[in-house]
Amino acid sequence: xxxxxxxxxxxxxxxxxxxxxxxxxxxxxxxxxxxxxxxxxxxxxxxxxxxxxxxxxxxxxxxxxxxxxxxxxxxxxxxxxxxxxxxxxxxxxxxxxxxxxxxxxxxxxxxxxxxxxxxxxxxxxxxxxxxxxxxxxxxxxxxxxxxxxxxxxxxxxxxxxxxxxxxxxxxxxxxxxxxxxxxxxxxxxxxxxxxxxxxxxxxxxxxxxxxxxxxxxxxxxxxxxxxxxxxxxxxxxxxxxxxxxxxxxxxxxxxxxxxxxxxxxxxxxxxxxxxxxxxxxxxxxxxxxxxxxxxxxxxxxxxxxxxxxxxxxxxxxxxxxxxxxxxxxxxxxxxxxxxxxxxxxxxxxxxxxxxxxxxxxxxxxxxxxxxxxxxxxxxxxxxxxxxxxxxxxxxx
Length: 396
What we know:
3 domains; mainly beta; 39% strand
């Protein structure tokens, strides 16, 4: 067996053993113990984890690639560094005649001081599972690091097709790095050991442990969460993210909403008329009654309002189009002739105006409602409105 270990053998540890196992990998799980795992890295630099990679060698034999790892014992036993400087082959027992089974491949440390095995060494071993209709992998023994689960079908043997290696392997390897290093996550995501610990996920997301969960790094520092991480739970009110369609969103404590809402817009596309000389929100000969537009006041307390219509009345009678502003059940501003769109013509004429409205309360929802009238009107004249619109642009 090529697997080399340090500080296990009572005698015979060589200088080469010691050099091979100077790994310095101590990803903490508590003040005394570290995480068992494999040192990351690959020959090409393209992969996070190549150590102890396993693949088919023959029908029932697999090759375990070289690598280095640490295996944490019980809290008083310390951590065991191991190294495999050259690939090793392992052979699986033939399958059960009736049922399949799941075997577990592990790096196992024998330490006579704790297990009474009369052995002091590290080995790559196969822990054979129990055949069954729904087989499960066996538990990992003490002082061991699981590498792979391997499904061995019923009847599998060297002369009967062997193990279907393309589907039989389940990779259990997890990496470790030195204290304070950024952990490249592979396979299982494990909890952090302390706030401020960092990891890099398989989808290339940088995360920080906040004491209870892994948080995307931009969230932790107040940056904008990228769209690739938009499925993560928000961390705090006021957090920003890049929406699925490139829109900037802000978390309000409950939901993600547009960071800068607006512009708001509505219109009247079914023409109607009024004969009323006082302001009314109801037109005759149309189904669009009343026409309203609600908006949320921005932090600047100001909005720009643009409104207008195609308007027709009579050369001596003026049609008015104005706005009524409410906030809930409170009337903030009644329609005012000074801010009305006014026209007197027997032909349709397009008229509009802009107005800046200030002094609003940020965060509250306000509503504009169209108001119409004709003045004077002693002959039952009609003021007609078509394609009327309201647009509100928050001022930031």
